[in-house]
Design brief:
Number of domains: 1
Structural class: alpha+beta
Strand order of the largest sheet: 2-1-5-4-3
Radius of gyration: 12 Å
Helix content: 10-25%
Largest sheet: 5 strands, mixed
Oligomer: single chain
Mean pLDDT: 88
């Protein structure tokens, strides 16, 4: 069966994909919350990451996928 993996951003899990854990989960005493980007793709974002850092990182990923970086 197909298992959905969601990208983690920030904190010790940065760059890793984890199974869907609902709206939030704790790891290493930090909270990760599910957040959708402008294209409705989910990510788990560490509580230490600001909204601006999240937006900048997602924009950078889009540029990389398009071959601009």
């Amino acid at each position: 069966m197909f298992e959905v993996k969601i990208l983690c951003l920030g904190g010790p899990l940065h760059g890793k994909r984890v199974e869907d854990k609902g709206e939030k989960f704790s790891e290493d005493e930090l909270v990760y919350r599910k957040k959708l980007d402008d294209q409705k793709h989910p990510s788990y974002v560490c509580e230490t990451m600001t909204d601006q850092q999240f937006k900048d990182l997602k924009d950078e990923v889009k540029m990389f996928q398009k071959g601009y970086v």
